[in-house]
Amino acid sequence: MNFQGSSQGVRKSRRFALVAALALMMGFASAPLPASASSNTEVESSIVLIGTTWSGFIFVPDYASADGVGYWTDQLTASSFCTGWFASTKGDIVTAGHCVDPDEGRIAILTNYLSSQDAMDSLSDAIVNWTVEGDNDGDDAKRVVQVVQPSDVEGAIITSDPITAQIVDFRGFEDGDLALLRVAGIKSTPPLTVAPTNPVVGDALTAVGFPGSVAEVMDGTRVHASFKSGTASSRQYSAEGGVPTTEINADISPGMSGGPTVNSKGEVLGVNSFTLTNEQRNFNFITDTDDLETFLKKNDIGYVAGSVDNGSGTVILVILAIFVLVLLAAGAYYLLVWRKKHPSTAAATSFGNNSVVLPRSAVHENQPAPAVITTAPTVLEDKPPIVIGPSETTPLVDNTPKDDAPPTGVYCPECGTPYPNSAKFCSKDGTPLPNA
Description:
Blueprint: H1 3-30, H2 40-44, E1 47-60, E2 71-72, E3 76-86, E4 92-95, H3 102-116, H4 123-129, E5 131-133, E6 142-148, E7 163-164, E8 166-171, E9 178-182, E10 193-194, E11 204-209, H5 212-217, E12 226-237, E13 244-248, E14 260-263, E15 268-276, E16 283-287, H6 289-298, E17 304-305, H7 312-341, E18 346-351, E19 354-359, E20 410-411, E21 418-419
Parallel strand pairs: 10-17
Antiparallel strand pairs: 1-2, 1-3, 1-5, 1-6, 3-4, 4-9, 6-7, 8-9, 11-12, 11-14, 12-13, 13-16, 14-15, 15-16, 18-19, 20-21
Helix pairs in contact: 1-7
């Protein structure tokens, strides 16, 4: 086994596993639970600008006229602007009820008239006591509601000219402040999804609409809706009728009435309804989510309903997080055991008289790895020493008498050892023999 490659592979695998696990956990932590989230662009394509024109006659009572004789004014007009949003693919539009309420139209006509007469101090009395009628006796002031979308909005449907809308149903301010409009001949309108539940305190939300102050200073054909972010502040109920509403701290200004307030998924929580301005800071309110669904169901509107989050996404997230942690713990335990069984080694190389220890990774891959220096002594087996001597089968000196040997033989002049006539050198000291 190549220990060098194995140890590096383990380290790389450990780093990869750690990074992958952390990335996986961060991805789970940051990813939203499954939902049909909508971008601001998608929401804005469903927003419409609503203009209501009121026309009627005012009877000025005798006590308010200069000569003490009451009279009818000429026909007067007033206009108001609100925001709405598509609730279906068939041109159904939801807005605030007060945007089309005849009582609001009556106040608008009175306000315009008294403002032109420089008599606004009489407005409170006029709202309570003066008569405003339409073309016929007893009729409410005439109203015409038109809708349009700025041509600069991506995905807008009604962009060429304002289209007159039919008023299908509405509830006054004290009854829920909702209205349903319909534009005939318009198909494939992009609806917003209605949230399945009311917001709770602290939930993030965004109020959407066309502020009147912005439209006054900007190009009306290219104006965009404003998105005002905030949170749900409280749950409240009206003094008359106990109608539920939600207080929010997102800014709402005139002109945004009827626009949707959406949650972080782009689902409608309610419509922008009213604001209290008699405090140091404005208190803003939207209509009830459950009441909105009831209103749409009553009018048989095929709206898009959001799904309820039953917490399954959170459970899955927790299970996956635990699984990743178990994998990390198992990997760490395996590495600890593996290191104990396979201690790391180092290769040694010598430069001059100094011995330098380098890790294996420092050895060039094309060179053979240097030998590993160890301090363990070499243990030899306890065996007798091997003695090199003459072979038993092949004697170095042949002392067997030969037939042709002289009787006297040959003697070494140094040591006197006898040898046959055929010998040339003495086997003991190498002295040449006499007959050599």
